[in-house]
Amino acid sequence: MHKMRLAEIGEEQQQKEIWKLCFGDPERYINFFFTNRYKADETAVMLDDREILAMLTMMPVKTAISDHHSYNTAMLYAIATAPEYQNQGLASKLIDYSCQYLKPCKAEVFVLVPANLKLFDFYRKLGFRNGFYIKETQLNYSSVDTLPVYQQGECLIYPITPEDYNRRRNHQLQGSFYISYCDEDIVYQKKLSQLSGADIYALDIGEIEGCLAVERLSPVKVIIKEILIPADLMTIAIKQLVREIPADEYVLRTHPRFGKYLEGIVRPFGMIKAPEEFEGTSSQENSGYLGLAFD
């Protein structure tokens, strides 16, 4: 009979093996996660005797729905089942176990970021729905010159502390429906960015304080995992960004509101399982924002 519980110290190697088989990440990254972010008491596992069959991480975050109201939330992350045990409903059972375990006092809301489009349908069957959207834009170095400028201003970009990044992030998203993180999560994102050869940055344009998180995918390709600055200042920020962080290709993700003048697509990014009062809170037109998913 399968048993579900929190992970225990000494089970990390089994989890690393499942992670590598399911996600294909290099050992360098897997070891990085287990060194810098892994916590046994935030990890749920399903076992047969002492063999781990499935696992997931439960990251504590907050869902802000106004300036004065937020919900304790768990971001379900790195949901993985050993390949030989897949298609048996084990992940569904472990997700349900995790939600039941957290509900009494630790989380009222559950969010996750599906790894691909097919998984959106899978998670809908478990009670999740589309809740968070991003504007995603593909740019190349030469095309940035043709972006229109809506407002003039000098832009400064420089590395920033996790605490200041989080302050700026929360200020830019103030009053909206979004996932807020603790400073510890931003510390992890800074380490992730630095591991790739980039960083998290301040964006200063006049008196406006924005922020962006960048990871370098290769010597010629960069992903801007989050950039938060008012829409009419976005192209100024992008033009300065390509000067500071040169590459041939850029993938840019932002809140649809901030990216409204950019070409690209608005697409579902994260899903939510929440109390009834959340119904109608988010749609593609009134986008919830998750942003950093540590993907």
Q: In words, what does this structure look like?
A:
- This protein is α+β, with helices and mostly antiparallel strands and 295 residues long.
- 27% of the residues lie in helices and 35% in strands.
- The protein has 7 helices and 13 strands.
- The protein has helices spanning 12-23, 27-36, 90-102, 117-124, 162-172, 183-196, 234-244; strands spanning 3-6, 43-48, 51-66, 69-81, 109-112, 129-140, 155-159, 178-180, 200-205, 208-218, 221-228, 249-254, 265-273.
- Strands 1, 2, 3, 4, 5, 6, 7, 8, 9, 10, 11, 12 and 13 form a 13-stranded mixed sheet that branches.
- Helix 1 (12-23) crosses helix 2 (27-36) and helix 5 packs across helix 6.
- The longest helix is centred in the middle third of the chain and has 14 residues, at 183-196.
- The radius of gyration is 20 Å and the shape is globular.
- The mean pLDDT is 93.
Fill in the keyword field for this structure.
295 residues; alpha+beta; 7 helices
Give me a quick take on this structure.
With 295 residues, the protein is α+β, with helices and mostly antiparallel strands.
Poorly predicted runs: none
**What sequence of helices (H) and strands (E) makes up the elements?**
EHHEEEHEHEEHEHEEEHEE
Report the helical percentage: 25-40%
Largest sheet: 13 strands, mixed
Report Rg. Answer: 20 Å
Class inferred from helices and paired strands = alpha+beta
Number of strands: 13
Dominant shape: globular
